[in-house]
Amino acid sequence: MKVSDIIITKAGGISLTEALVEKLPMLVISPIPGQEKLNSDLMLSAGVMMVVRNKKEAFNFLKLIIDRPDILEKMKKNADRISKPKAAEEVARFAKEIA
Q: What share of residues in the chain are helix, strand, coil (percent, to 5)?
């Protein structure tokens, strides 16, 4: 992920968390109803993901970000804004304090 400009992935929680930690924009094709759809809706509203319905739409979006790198840059900034890469450490520290 560190050398990627974008990840094409499913909208599972672990995949999205890893991408956010790396501030990596995401592209998801047809998220599965349920948790993946909810995850996609959240990431889409945060401006870090594009959701498409099929391979043709995916191709068109990838072509768009090649032609318009500002779109990808904005997605990266949005990912940086909402990313919490040290969340596990903060939770562990908090648990230790209250124990």
A: 60, 10, 30
Instruction: For residue 68, give both structure tokens.
Output: 């318009």
Residue 46 contacts residue 71 (beta carbons within 8 Å): no
Please tell me the pTM assigned to this model. 0.85
List, for residues 80-96, the tens digit of each pLDDT value: 999 887 888 999 999 99
- When pLDDT is cut at 50, 70 and 90, the band that residue 33 belongs to is very high
The rounded distance, in Å, linking the Cα atoms of 33 and 17 is 19
CA angle 9, 39, 46 (to 5 degrees): 95
Non-local CB neighbours of 37 within 8 Å, separated by 6+ positions: 11, 31
